[in-house]
Amino acid sequence: MNNQDASQAAPAGVTAVDQVDREAPLTLKAAAGRAFPDGTMTVRTLRAERDRGRLETWIIGKREYTSLAAIAKMIELCRTAPRAASASREKAASPSTSFDITKTRPGPDSALRSLERLKERLERDRPKGKRRRAV
Questions:
Q1: DSSP 8-state class, residue 34
Q2: Where are the domains of the chain?
Q3: pLDDT tens digit string along 75-103?
């Protein structure tokens, strides 16, 4: 065996991903280890993806299985769509001039009118013997 073959060989006891049937059932632990050899995917994460409906699994006996093909499908379902670059550039390039704070926030006149209406309602709804004197 030359150096190139040795560097491509899988570690002892682990089959390379290319050598496994993509539809073969694997336990979640084995599937996580083979699909994500860097250890970033755990059984717990695979179960969470199953619960979200993105990973197909099978329960045979008391064990849960999935396949590398199911994990590949899960990865496609988890892929986020890239944001439109042109929309973000437009926002950054030209600030919006259509926003007018006077249209969206009530001014002091509006607050005073609301206060007067509340005072009138309070005086009207208060029992007659307990009217307050105007100040």
A1: H
A2: 9-78
A3: 999 888 877 765 555 555 555 555 555 55
